[in-house]
Amino acid sequence: MKDISITPDNPAQNNDQYNDLAASILVSSPCISLCRMDDETGLCEGCARTLDEICDWADADDAEKRAILHAIDLRRGSHNPSQQ
What we know:
Helix content: 40-55%
Distance between the termini: 38 Å
Radius of gyration: 17 Å
Order of helices and strands: HHH
Strand content: under 5%
Structural class: mainly alpha
Shape: elongated
Oligomer: single chain
């Protein structure tokens, strides 16, 4: 974990460090522990990820994780019209 030293003498640096840490923390796994693959869609019934996305998640950087989360949002929108 990053060491963030909060000091009043450099607020810009503190803000950058905080933003970096906050951005990293905010990308959490969409897993809800309902892990079952749908044979028709190829998606997990719990989190709506593909098997490749599930396998790649641990090694993905924040940008890749956000792209996966965006893809999930798009999928859920197209597969669940009542949520639009």
